[in-house]
């Protein structure tokens, strides 16, 4: 049976010598956790969880990471309001958006040079 990565703990450890990447310590948005679980988990039956089941198991993981109280109900209103510990741990990617679907207006130079 494949072993999943740790989902709980490691908060504040990312910049230390022993960084522990978990849902609690690494993911910047609680809504991404919901989306990932709803699409991909459980690994053996991806997509089998209902929206409500996914809110419930996401709430369980957030509570196990001490990000929300056990009494807090997660739903489409409350989940986006959750502030994850690593919310500010990401810096915008300064590289230009390249490729035929890039929305960088007037930057055809990039696309062109790529085509050659
Ligand atoms: C409802 C039950 C489950 C929940 C809520 C859940 C949740 C998660 C989450 C949030 C992640 C992403 C962790 C991260 O990248 O930081 C993950 C990854 C993973 N889980 Fe689950 N999981 C569930 C069941 C399972 C089961 C039953 C298995 C194995 C049979 C499993 C195996 C894995 C594996 C292998 C990954 C890593 C996937 C990758 O990196 O591509 N999970 N799971």
Reconstruct the topology from this structure.
Layout: H1 23-26, H2 30-40, H3 51-64, H4 108-115
Helix pairs in contact: 2-3
The chain binds protoporphyrin IX containing FE.
Structure notes:
The chain has 116 residues and is an all-alpha fold. The chain has one domain (1-86): Cytochrome Bc1 Complex, Chain D, domain 2 (Orthogonal Bundle). 32% of the residues lie in helices and 0% in strands. It contains 4 helices and no strands. The chain has helices at 23-26, 30-40, 51-64, 108-115. Helix 2 (30-40) crosses helix 3 (51-64). The longest helix is centred in the middle third of the chain and has 14 residues, at 51-64. The chain starts with 22 loop residues before the first helix and ends with a helix. 19% of the residues are buried. The mean pLDDT is 88. Protoporphyrin IX containing FE binds at residues 1-2, 4-5, 7, 22-23, 33, 36-37, 41-44, 57.
Structure, briefly:
The chain has 116 residues and is mainly alpha-helical. It has helices at residues 23-26, 30-40, 51-64, 108-115.
């Amino acid at each position: 049976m494949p072993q999943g990565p740790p989902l709980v703990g490691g908060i504040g450890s990312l910049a230390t010598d022993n960084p522990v990447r978990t849902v609690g310590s690494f993911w910047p948005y609680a809504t991404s956790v919901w989306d990932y679980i709803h699409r991909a988990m459980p690994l053996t039956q991806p997509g089998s969880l209902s929206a409500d089941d996914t809110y419930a198991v996401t709430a369980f993981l957030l509570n196990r990471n001490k990000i929300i109280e056990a009494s807090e109900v997660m739903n489409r209103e409350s989940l986006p309001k959750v502030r994850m510990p690593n919310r500010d741990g990401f810096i915008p990617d300064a590289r230009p958006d390249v490729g035929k679907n890039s929305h960088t207006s007037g930057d055809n130079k990039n696309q062109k040079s790529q085509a050659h």
